[in-house]
């Protein structure tokens, strides 16, 4: 078992990057690395010039007889990249998957997990990607709800503005109607005053005409009785001038 292996240091070269770990760490989880370094099989492992084990797909395939999942769909080159191998070692050390921040890096790490047949790491990455998708979906839904709320608020504000504008138009129309009504009242009052003045003037003229006619009748009677007296003629002329003045046919003048 992996727990019975001695804490022997193992030096690796992965994609040109150097890593140093223990055989116990490499054998901590079932998979390609455990099959290569558990000691159950003694394949010929390639080493670089510095004596580091050189990780290739062929090296892994030679030791997959004890691993149920075969290597048959590898799309990576023979030489593995060392970009995410540190995360692979961290998972082997403590069993916890610390995922990269970006989905692209997570997918690259998932390819490494599948290459090394680390099902636990691959499952953790799947869960992390699904959780990221859920968070993005929830964020999109929240953003859509915020946008809908803002749209409703804008519509409410627009409706309120339209109500205010309608109320303003109603007030302006009422003010215009009130001004027209006031103008009509002033016109009626002016017409009534003119009619009253005309009626008063007509009544005054009728009264004076009646009085003048009475005086004229008296003068005619006196002329018949007394004859053509100069005083009576003078009074007759004054009476005629007064009548013409009252009727507007003659400007007032002193006789």
From TrEMBL:
Stretches assigned to coiled coil: 137-191
BTB domain boundaries: 8-133
Protein name (database record): BTB domain-containing protein
Gene Ontology biological-process entries: protein homooligomerization
Keyword entries, A-Z: Coiled coil
Superkingdom to which the source organism belongs: Eukaryota
Pathway note: Protein modification; protein ubiquitination
């Amino acid at each position: 078992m992996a727990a019975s292996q001695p804490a022997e240091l193992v030096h690796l070269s992965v994609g040109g990057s150097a890593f140093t770990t223990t055989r116990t760490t490499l054998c901590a989880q079932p998979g390609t690395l455990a099959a290569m370094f558990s000691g159950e099989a003694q394949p010929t492992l390639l080493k670089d010039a510095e004596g580091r084990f050189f990780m290739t797909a062929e090296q892994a395939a030679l030791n997959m007889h004890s691993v149920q999942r075969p290597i048959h769909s590898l799309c990576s080159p023979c030489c593995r990249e060392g970009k995410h191998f540190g995360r692979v070692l961290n998972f082997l050390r403590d069993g916890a998957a610390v995922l990269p921040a970006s989905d692209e890096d997570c997918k690259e790490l998932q390819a490494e997990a599948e290459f090394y047949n680390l099902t636990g790491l691959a499952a953790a990455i799947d869960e992390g990607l699904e959780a990221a998708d859920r968070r993005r979906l929830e964020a999109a839904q929240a953003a859509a709800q915020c946008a809908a709320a803002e749209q409703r608020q804008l519509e409410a504000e627009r409706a309120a503005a339209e109500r205010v504008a309608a109320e303003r138009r109603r007030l302006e129309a009422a003010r215009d109607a009130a001004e027209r009504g006031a103008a009509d009242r002033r016109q009626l009052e002016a017409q009534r005053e003119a009619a009253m003045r005309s009626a008063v003037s007509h009544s005054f003229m009728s009264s004076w005409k009646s009085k003048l006619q009475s005086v004229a009748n008296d003068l005619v009677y006196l002329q018949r009785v007394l004859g053509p007296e100069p005083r009576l003629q003078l009074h007759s002329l004054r009476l005629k001038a007064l009548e013409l003045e009252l009727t507007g046919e003659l400007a007032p003048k002193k006789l």
